[in-house]
Design goal:
The protein is mainly beta and 315 residues long. It contains 3 helices and 14 strands. The protein has helices at 2-11, 100-103, 218-222; strands at 16-18, 39-41, 62-64, 85-87, 109-111, 132-134, 155-157, 178-180, 201-203, 225-226, 235-236, 248-252, 255-259, 312-314.
């Protein structure tokens, strides 16, 4: 059946080709003849490797290998220099080859979710055009300082890993607008994290945070914090935080919803992140945000400076 699909694609000089969900454990060698391909979908199969012949797909810009049985990044990927989007989620990958990153310098999106990756090698710096990096549900313990060299990175998702600390260099990513670090083992955030001028979403749910960065002045620049208003403390805004005049946090099972003055819930619903954030839409279950007993100051807020003294956590 797969060969018939390949023959049909050859006749039509196809730019996109899919063998997804075909329950195949190897790719027909004839796929290598589809030299005009820009997009190839091989997800939801039983693949454990890719044939080296696929290096002929030199124009390929998008490759989906999600939900297979790969234990390593297929070596043939080194010979696909035009790749811009690579999906390898839902496999059994433990290690990332150091030489793969320099060969894939045009990547703008890399999805490695749901693998067994423990180490992100420093050679990640070779992905100079990367904009979205997602490594949720792995076993990462350390993020290399070289991640700061990904100058075009706008979104970084490290949810559900084993991180106990973040490199301070993370604060030097000039384009970073979304940072998801929920459900790790973080006890503090790096100083300077709120100096990320483009930051709009920060999800820290389900960690062990007991300290907050001393310098929160960068929040004013990002629009996540409004200067003190008459008769109250500073205002935590929408997007990363909920709007509130004298902000209150209503804790829920896996995070919190900010309420406005008078305890009225914000009509926009749960946002993607907060000081005690709720997970984003469609977020998988995992270690949730900690519950806050009635009337107590949220542990995350206990160390905030005086201009945030009005922010309290209630159940």
């Amino acid at each position: 059946m797969a060969n018939n699909l390949v023959i049909r694609a050859l006749r039509g000089n196809a730019k996109s080709f899919s063998l997804s969900s075909k329950n195949i454990n190897q790719i027909p060698s004839t796929v290598a003849n589809l030299t005009s391909l820009l997009k190839l979908q091989l997800n939801n199969n039983c693949l454990s490797t890719l044939p080296i012949e696929l290096q002929s797909l030199c124009h390929l810009t998008e490759l989906n290998l999600g939900n297979n049985l790969l234990e390593e990044i297929p070596p043939v990927l080194k010979y696909l220099p035009s790749l811009r989007k690579l999906y390898v989620f839902g496999n059994q990958i433990e290690n990332l080859p150091e030489d793969i990153f320099g060969a894939l310098s045009k990547l703008v999106l890399l999805n490695l979710n749901h693998n067994k990756i423990r180490v992100l090698p420093p050679e990640i710096k070779g992905l100079t055009h990367l904009e979205i990096l997602s490594l949720t549900h792995n076993q990462l313990e350390v993020i290399p300082a070289e991640i700061a060299l990904l100058n075009k990175l706008t979104e970084l998702n490290l949810t559900n890993n084993n991180l106990v600390t973040l490199p301070p260099q993370l604060c030097f990513l000039p384009q970073l607008s979304k940072l998801y670090i929920a459900r790790n083992y973080l006890k503090e955030l790096p100083e300077g994290i709120f100096r990320l001028s483009k930051l709009k979403v920060l999800d820290v749910a389900g960690n062990c945070l007991t300290m907050f960065p001393v310098d929160l002045t960068g929040l004013y620049d990002t629009g996540l914090l409004v200067p003190p208003c008459q008769g109250g403390g500073a205002v935590l805004r929408r997007k990363c935080f909920r709007p509130a005049q004298i902000g209150r946090i209503h804790s829920r099972d896996r995070g919190a919803v900010f309420k406005g003055a008078g305890g009225q819930a914000d009509p926009d619903g749960v946002q993607e992140g907060a000081l005690c954030p709720a997970p984003g839409p469609g977020a998988p279950p995992g270690r949730g945000g900690r519950a806050v007993s009635g009337g107590q100051v949220c542990p995350l807020l206990s160390g905030l400076p005086h201009h945030l003294a009005g922010v309290r956590a209630v159940c």
